[in-house]
Amino acid sequence: METALLEASLYTVKAICILDNDGNRIISKFYDDTFPTVKEQKDFEKNLFNKTHKANAEIIMIDGLTSVYRSNVDLFFYVVGSSQENELILHSVLNCLFDVTSQILRKNIEKRALFDHLDGIYLAIDEIVDGGIILEADPASVLQRVALKGDDPTMSDGNFKDAITSKLDVLQQAKDQLGGWSVGWKN
Question: Between the CA atoms of 183, 185, 186 and 187, what dihedral angle is there, to the nearest 10 degrees?
């Protein structure tokens, strides 16, 4: 019997989905062309939800794909990989996504709170997986990156005019410093 060796690939995640308790899409990000149209993606999500919403397991093989999932109150979290993908790796991505979401929503993991913090959740997903490649599976690191991108102290203080003025001053200083240089531009 011949053993076929699979080529190693960094592209481990095919999709990340967060669905509500009716199986409707809240967030879905597909990383390859397994389901090229929105209709096919929604059909897959509906099928995935129908097979998992009453189940008590954490993993399912569906349509030739490995899916790990977790639910809480009225949200279902899914991470989907190929049929040959390591379930433990997918589960670590799922746990990271769930833990980060829990922290962003201040442990109030429900649909309404998710909608209120949708921008932070999108940032977190982008920090965890990019193009199907797992970038980070440590919730603390992801939270730190999301917090850095989400907070601009000059803008959150409400002093928008001061922030713009200070940034214009920095630009003017840079322009003044470059003024003595010969860069080779023609006006």
Answer: -100
Calpha distance 26→73 (Å, rounded)? 14
**Phi, psi (degrees; rounded to nearest 5) at 106:** 55, 50
Q: Output DSSP code: residue 11.
A: B
Beta strands in 7-97 (DSSP E): 13-20, 25-30, 59-62, 65-72, 75-82
Instruction: Indicate the angle between helix axes 87-104 and 139-150, nearest 10 degrees.
Output: 40
State how far the alpha carbon of 45 is from the alpha carbons of 14, 38, 42, in Å. Answer: 13, 10, 5
pLDDT digits (tens, 9 = 90+) for 56-114: 778 999 989 999 999 888 899 999 998 888 899 999 999 999 999 989 888 888 889 88
> Rounded to an integer, what distance in angstroms lies between the CA atom of residue 17 and that of residue 63?
16
Task: Report residue 111: phi and psi, to 5°.
Answer: -55, -50
- Evaluate if pTM is beyond 0.85: no
| Helix ranges, the chain (H) | 38-52, 87-104, 111-116, 118-128, 139-150, 153-156, 160-179
The helix-helix angle for 118-128 and 87-104 (nearest 10°) equals: 150
